[in-house]
User: Fold Gluconate 2-dehydrogenase alpha chain from Sporosarcina psychrophila.
Amino acid sequence: MATTLEKVDVITVGVGWAGGIIGAECAKAGLKVLGLERGKERSTKDYSLVHDEFRYAIRYDLMQDLSKETITFRNSRKMRALPMRQMGSFLLAEGLGGSGTHWNGHTWRFLPYDFEIKSMTDKKYGKDKLSSDYLIQDWGVTYDELEPYFDKFEKTAGISGENKNPFAGKRSSEFPTPPMKRTPILKKFEKAASKLGYSPFMLPSANLSESYENPDGESIMACQYCGFCERFGCEYGAKTSPEITVIPTARKTGNYDVRFYANVVEVLKKGNKVTGVRYIDTQTGEEFIQPAEVVVLTSYMMNNAKLLMVSGIGEMYDPDTGKGMLGKNYAYQVLPGATGFFDEQMNVFMGAGSLGMSIDDFNGDNFDHGDLDFIHGASLSITQTGVRPIATNPLPPDTPVWGEDFKKSSIYNYTRTLNIGGQGASLPHKENFLSLDPNYKDAYGVPLLQLTYNFTEQDKNLHKYLTEKTAVIMKEMGAKTVMAGNPITNYDIVPYQTTHNTGGTIMGASPDNSVVNTQLQHWDAENLFVLGAGNFPHNGGYNPTGTVGALAYRAAEGIVKYSKAGGSLV
Assistant:
């Protein structure tokens, strides 16, 4: 028997960047906000022993327990989906801060082209550039409309960067803090890219170049370049995360609280509104009903979609008919790139999650696609994130995979190997989608989310073209041996690739082509908001967090307006 608790104004399901921003902005506006987090509380003081590669990078201490909940995966509808038994292609976080704790800190704004990709592509290349199997569409909001919210997120996070990307959308202000250090490795890339006629610039970073106080009065420290960012928390408080910014801001209002070990298993709906959520205390097994005036789904994009599905809110996508929006437009990324082996030693073991340099010459529609068999592209970057010894074993071609020569080559190349990588935009396809698995359930009796996904011809063509570009840059950098990435074939759930999953709860200007409107309000339940990278109608050539942050501030504005007005679409 579930225990019904006292009603609150706003619930967020998940307390990462999205939940933290909603919590802070709504609490500052006087609303009583409760964050439900199924993981535990954590903060900077908990990471004093964070430089434990085995604990965090290999055993995934900050991640979700897949023995309790995972996803199932298949390449096509003809296959049987099987559970992901260990952390694979992407990393599912758990605990206060969510993925905002273990991220590298790359903080991009999606390009103006991304938000109007359908109309811009049709206008320039014609409506038949891609087949109708690709489900590209405009977002219903433009870059210029989102720019103030990008600006607000960057100032909250203190993002370090330089306004030297000629392809970026216009900015209303400069980056809050200067770019990170231009190391010898980055200068090598900068010189080569410039010589080839490209426009390199420092990667926008949430590892701050200097100490900073944000507009809410929260302090963020300067990065120490220790090389332990991705999969780790930051013991210096120098990698901007929700725990040191928006969550403290929310708590200071007196209108905000977080309830830990609270796993939401259902959103409760009556008529055209939701009434609250049902959750299970993962420590005691007790079941609770938490009523609320407004419910905001702010957990990882896959869990947002799953909660809507198991709650029966919205029409599930049917790939045979094309009807239904929930689960539609799932997209991932492809990773073109090249590895270079050098004679000189470099300090590759030092760095930071977002210490890098990029070019956007081959991103979005920044280059002509008229004679190419794909659209969009990738940001191409060299990053100096800190090469750690357990997970790093660079080997040139034709090196034995065991024995004396293997060991000798591994040791020699550890500090003599560089990589240029791209984040290629994977576009939605009618056969790539999210659904509920008919066979497998989680530890709480709820069906697992099922992922049906495979790389498309668009993905393969983009990957091949841009891999060749990275190999040319690496050769210009002076590598004695250049090893271009292998062509992609079928997607596999292992090994790790990127946590940049998008789609499933897409946004748009009409309920005919989206799950939520442009302020992330659900079309079928006016007091339900769904927020995360799942709102993206397609994936881009960047990390999604900066764009999620912008959407969160826009959604918060809508939630406050809705609450103050006493209800209605915003």
In short: The domain at 3-565 is CATH 3.50.50.60 (FAD/NAD(P)-binding domain). The CA atoms of residues 5 and 413 lie 59 Å apart.
